[in-house]
């Protein structure tokens, strides 16, 4: 991908450095540039990057983590209360310097929802007054288990959800890139139609001026009426007005297309009429089977159902009795010297059990469970509707694409016939055998036929890329559509 970007730089240097120039673009070139430089493509890549690093973080949660933490140092010069043997209190002065380090290796346990860790600790305290002694406290090795007795096991749910979420993101990235293709085709043909309209307007003005000149000559010899002459004059004025409007639309569409490709405003784009879109033999059933396999909708459905179940499980746990057990065993020692603190070690055992019993919550816990269940039913209904809509969209898109081939063939033939008819009508008018209304009618039909051809060609390409987006399948190469992720 980086090599391709370098190629773009060398192929179009004037565009990238802002020098004023005219750039001729084919539709394939526009598609390649848009997939790299357009804002939509950048958003798609960064969205995938977010999903990738989120998945990496989930994978890291399954692995042991090592942490070194401590305080280096802590100075305490303060007064604190002290209770004497007779029960009275007095304040004593604290003057000490302390340091502590704790090295721990922790492993989450997905199947129980708890964690187990190994620790090694060392603490030093220096008295800054009195006999100014130094003491050490060490825990050479400790094993700690932290385990909720009643838990929804969120990491276990993550093991089921996160892989599907990441696969969904990979396929959604392909869908987004195909959406970039569709948007590029839209901008390309809108600009192309504006260019065609501008050319038509220029040619119509030229023809109107020539027809008016011919009519003025006929007027001198009395073979044309004043009404026809005035109508030709009005036609020339209308042609001038249409040219101004066409030039404005041309500038607007070029700006939109250029902006989408992120070219400098000084670049003047020139494009040509693309070839017909590929003709592929496909059936709605065939495309639907491929789409159901490749489209991210399947992973999205599975993810949503799992997330809904997780919400119900979490709501049930939050509603009821909770208990957490904490157990730590190991060895500990203390001495006035560092080496001595690791001798004559004593057993260290810490066990605690924490409980939480909701007594009165006014139905809040039960309400959360019912809310989660209602959300699950809503998701199921939305999923069913999404599946129906997706199957309908695929079927309609394939049928429209198949019909579009015939419509395009008709438009090509109509364009050719209309062009020939106008040339014939123009020559006959010059000879004086038809009136102004006939030549105007031939011109309108010629212009409309040309626009209809461009419109049908645009629709054909749009349907083609729409089927690619729905199925994530290249029917020309007969392979799945895969866009490689660019890792930052």
From TrEMBL:
A single Gene Ontology CC annotation of this entry is:
cell outer membrane
Keywords on record: Cell outer membrane, Membrane, Transmembrane, Transmembrane beta strand, Transport
What is the name listed in the Swiss-Prot or TrEMBL entry for this protein?
Answer: Outer membrane protein TolC
- List the Pfam families: OEP
GO MF entry, a single one? efflux transmembrane transporter activity
- The answer to whether keyword Electron transport applies is no
**Family named by the database record:** Belongs to the outer membrane factor (OMF) (TC 1.B.17) family.
Instruction: State where the protein is found.
Output: Cell outer membrane
